[in-house]
Amino acid sequence: MSERAGRRSPLHPDVLRLARGFALSALASLGAAACLSSTDRAPQEGSVNHAAVSLGGLPALNIDVNDTSTSGLSAGAFMAVQFHVAYSSMMTGVGVFAGGPFDCTEGSLTTALTTCMTALPSAPDPSRAVTATTNFANAGAIDPTSNLAGQHVFLFGGADDTTVAPAVMDALESYYGTWTTSGTVTYEKRHPSTGHTMPTVDYGGDCDTTGDPWIGKCNYDGAGIALGEIYGTLQPKASTPGGQYVSIEQGAFVSDPASHSLADTGYAYIPASCANGERCRVHVAFHGCKQYATGSVGDKYYKHAGYNEWADTNHIVVLYPQTIATTGSNPNGCFDWWGYDSADYAKQSGPQMMMVRRMIDALAGGGGDAGAPDSGGAPDAGQDTGTGQDSGATDAGTGSETCILANNYDHVAAGRAHVSFGYALADGSDQNMGLYSIAIVTSLRQTGPDQYVIGTCP
Helix (H) and strand (E) counts for the chain? Predict the structure, then answer.
């Protein structure tokens, strides 16, 4: 989705009332239990609460959106970095297995294949990535960089990795070191006898080999160590996963997935504790090139990369978005980290980025904080007057800017946001505010005429 040049004209109040009724009816049909608290649900033991399905086959759970994290391997690692940075206000941390700095490629496949992978003729420049991040944040295309200060970052690079050279990972360490002043950056640097692979204790091919399934028996629990660095001390992992795998209709979160090199079906692993209403968080695991489920790797990444056993005992839902190979533009089924799908690939408005954020919002439809990440949860919505006015909105002057706290329906009614595929997007920045609903409350800052970004109201 490209950035909007301007906002749409406000609709007539009668049209808005009809639209509101349609939206609320649609939300109800998608899952009447989506607004119930955990004590209101009574799912069967060990089963996913399908009565609370919100969108695309995902159950609406009790999710703390502000404790989200992400990780990935190779192209999935670059995707994890850009998702982490773009949505930093909702993030706790990131795990990177063979990746590089934010917007490393500058939209160039040539740069992706050279500087950002082989480090030839030179390694990525961390200062350029810092400048790009700052510029994107100042334009409202990603979250404010101040959110990165307290993040927990785990980096892993193999000594024998000839696909993403160790020097690229060194540049990523420097990049995160610029931002992470009160958090942590842990770097497993040049791990011996390790190629381009997702390291596990005892699953996959030889650790020093680069090849299908790109999961290696390294006697090293990469997923568990990454999650531990992000979230702190974890409960011991389950011996075998005891939750359920859920198929996700990715078309519910992005129009025409195949046109964006995305599969029709993604996956989520949901522990029984999360399905039964306990408070949980989300970890997004991005696979690498050629690791998509419809290819030769099949279910090996989303079932055996090592996350699910830890998720079971630590209240973590794991999302596994899926790509497909596209002849010409993306023959290896990589996530978009160089712009093959969209020039906005590293921004919140990038189609693949938006799809994953919408999945998280859908999971949080069962009592979690599905509203603006900066708001710290959704306070009570104001009463709707049916006039398009913000009866529950709070305006707070912040110098030359204005901050408005209101539900997403009222933001749209007042012309500060618009609706796309059932979600409210801020005018000007196109930042995803969550579902178009009176139940979701968002803080918007006005940064210019018809320009709004998600912010924090006093």
Answer: 11, 20
